[in-house]
């Protein structure tokens, strides 16, 4: 069934897939509302192509969300939040979503960001040091990790997955979005064109 933008916020729960799109991109990005968890960890600097992210003070595993404590990721049903954005604006929308998640107390290591088109600058920069070093950062799980959506099957599950539909082949998004949902322990945030995302979700989720 098509998704119609209604409420600006969504609460994490494990009550089954439910999509509550946000307002248009001209309005402030909705705040994903996390469940109860320990006090916020120090917020990291915004990743950029010029420097490597500074080490985080949070434990490697990070706080575990209630949904992530289920016996397996496949048995927990994450919430889905749609943030309407053009292909050109999807990455910026994803960055805003990450900032809000960190501001509301999510540990950086809880978050995986996937892009369907151009790589996030952080990912492009870290890959310049080689695949081994890049995936070692993923395995450390102590910071936000950015990857191409085609690599989602290699990525480990995290409580929150942010999926930026910022271009790339339609078939790639259709194939990888359901996998991204399976990797999300508590919340999947999708940034992209509603019509395109609806068609993918309707067919694959």
Short description:
The chain has helices spanning 90-103, 121-127, 131-140, 170-183, 194-204; strands at 10-11, 32-33, 79-84, 111-115, 145-148, 158-164, 184-192. With 205 residues, it is an alpha/beta fold.
Keywords:
single chain; two-stranded parallel ribbon; alpha/beta; 5 helices; 205 residues
Strand runs, count: 7
Mean pLDDT: 74
Largest sheet: 5 strands, parallel
Q: Kindly state the percentage of residues in helix.
A: 25-40%
Radius of gyration: 16 Å
User: What is the number of helical segments per DSSP (H or I, 4+ residues)?
Assistant: 5
What does this structure look like?
With 205 residues, the chain is α/β, with parallel strands linked by helices. The chain has helices spanning 90-103, 121-127, 131-140, 170-183, 194-204, and strands at 10-11, 32-33, 79-84, 111-115, 145-148, 158-164, 184-192. The strands form two sheets. A five-stranded parallel beta sheet has the order 3-7-6-4-5. Strand 6, helix 4 (170-183) and strand 7 form a beta-alpha-beta unit. Helix 4 (170-183) packs across helix 5 (194-204). The longest helix is centred in the middle third of the chain and has 14 residues, at 90-103. The chain starts with 9 loop residues before the first strand and ends with a helix. The relative contact order is 0.21. The model is unreliable at 4-20 and 22-75 (pLDDT under 50).
């Amino acid at each position: 069934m098509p998704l119609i933008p209604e409420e600006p916020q969504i609460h994490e729960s494990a009550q089954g897939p439910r999509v509550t799109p946000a307002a248009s991109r001209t309005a402030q990005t909705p705040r994903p509302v996390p469940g109860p968890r320990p006090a916020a960890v120090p917020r990291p600097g915004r990743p950029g192509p010029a420097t490597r992210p500074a080490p985080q003070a949070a434990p490697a595993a990070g706080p575990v969300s209630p949904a992530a404590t289920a016996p397996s990721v496949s048995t927990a049903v994450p919430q889905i939040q749609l943030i309407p954005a053009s292909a050109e604006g999807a990455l910026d929308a994803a960055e805003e979503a990450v900032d809000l998640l960190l501001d509301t107390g999510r540990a950086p290591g809880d978050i995986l960001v996937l892009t369907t088109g151009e790589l996030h600058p952080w990912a492009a920069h870290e890959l310049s040091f080689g695949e081994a070093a890049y995936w070692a950062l993923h395995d450390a799980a102590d910071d936000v990790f950015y990857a191409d959506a085609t690599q989602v099957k290699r990525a480990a599950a995290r409580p929150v997955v942010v999926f930026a539909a910022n271009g790339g082949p339609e078939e790639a998004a259709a194939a990888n979005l359901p996998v991204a949902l399976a990797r999300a322990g508590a919340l999947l945030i999708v940034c992209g064109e509603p019509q395109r995302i609806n068609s993918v979700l309707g067919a694959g989720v």
